[in-house]
Specification:
CATH class of the largest domain: Alpha Beta
InterPro entries: AAA+_ATPase, ABC_AA/LPS_Transport, ABC_transporter-like_ATP-bd, ABC_transporter-like_CS, BCA_ABC_TP_C, P-loop_NTPase
CATH superfamily of the largest domain: P-loop containing nucleotide triphosphate hydrolases
Organism: Georgenia subflava
Number of domains: 2
Strand order of the largest sheet: 6-7-8-3-9-10
Pfam family, one: ABC_tran
Strand content: 15-25%
CATH topology of the largest domain: Rossmann fold
Shape: globular
Bound molecules: adenosine-5'-triphosphate
Helix content: 25-40%
Largest sheet: 6 strands, mixed
GO cellular component, one term: plasma membrane
Protein name: ATP-binding cassette domain-containing protein
CATH architecture of the largest domain: 3-Layer(aba) Sandwich
């Protein structure tokens, strides 16, 4: 069934990105239904990160359009797209080593207000964000580490803190780039549960190589190969698709 325009959170049409003659994303059509959890998967180099960067404004498309809830956002800057309710996480951690988790979240909350992002932080101003910061830390399971410098957190805890920073922006649409990359099984399980909780009332698009994560979370999966959409459907549908099996076997034989 084709979703109506109100049901579509994010849509890419004919999206293309060339890097000096190399087509990394090739005429991609993508429809993300509001309230859904949509996974982007595909072999290494398929164009997943490039597509993410296009959707969040970190790259400008060579061709094609992107709409957020029906509004054309093609070519807008990342902050402008964020303003439309789209927030993203990154594969690489971008935390301040000496800043504590609570301070990180308070700053993220402050950045949404008219006070903007300021590095001279008045204790009094920051205190008003504390209750919400503590709620977000509890949400991602970091309450007990609120006062520990971020540099001393374990890898999975840093990723959880980054999730709290994205949540602080209260986005309607969350783009999560490999939320479980490099995690051990315990952190993966915790992250799946966390994404399930935060996906309630939101739209989530995520990239992940872990098929257990994709199968546990996604109600829709788009498979990319060499910049093109190879298949799309439910996890069960794409898993059984012979073209997808061949693409992954091809990758395994080159590993
Ligand atoms: N800035 C760039 N300049 C030139 N080529 C690039 C650039 N960024 C990505 N590419 C190329 O575009 C292709 C797609 O890369 P991309 O990182 O989007 O793939 P991916 O599916 O995210 O891969 P992975 O699963 O390994 O993260 C690759 O061949 C990559 O080398």
């Amino acid at each position: 069934m084709t979703p109506s325009s109100q049901q579509i959170a994010l849509q890419a049409t004919g999206l293309t990105k060339d890097f000096r003659g190399f087509r990394a994303v090739d005429n991609v059509d993508l429809t993300v239904v509001a309230g859904g959890v949509h996974a982007l998967v595909g072999p290494n180099g398929a164009g997943k990160t490039t597509l993410f960067n296009l959707l969040s404004g970190f790259l400008t498309p060579t061709a094609g359009t992107i709409t957020v809830r029906g509004e054309d956002v093609t070519g807008l800057q990342p902050e402008q797209i964020a303003h439309k309710g789209v927030a993203r996480s990154f594969q690489i951690t971008s935390l301040f080593e000496n800043l504590k988790p609570r301070e990180h979240v308070e700053l993220a909350l402050q950045s949404r207000t008219s006070l903007g992002r300021r590095f001279w932080r008045s204790e009094k101003i920051m205190r008003q964000f504390r209750p919400r910061a503590d709620e977000l830390l509890a949400e991602v399971g970091l309450s007990h580490l609120a006062e520990k410098p971020a540099g001393e957190l374990a890898y999975g805890q840093k990723r959880a803190l980054e999730m709290a920073l994205v949540l602080a922006l209260d986005p309607a649409i969350m783009l999560l780039d490999e939320p479980t990359a490099g995690m051990g099984i315990e952190d993966v399980t915790r992250t799946i549960e966390l994404v399930k909780r935060i996906a309630v009332g939101r739209t989530v698009v995520f990239v992940d190589h872990n098929m257990h994560v994709v199968g546990s979370l996604a109600d829709r999966v788009t498979v990319l190969q060499q910049g093109k959409v190879l298949a799309e459907g439910s996890y069960e549908e794409v898993r059984r698709d012979p073209r997808v099996i061949t693409a992954y076997l091809g990758e395994a034989s080159h590993a």
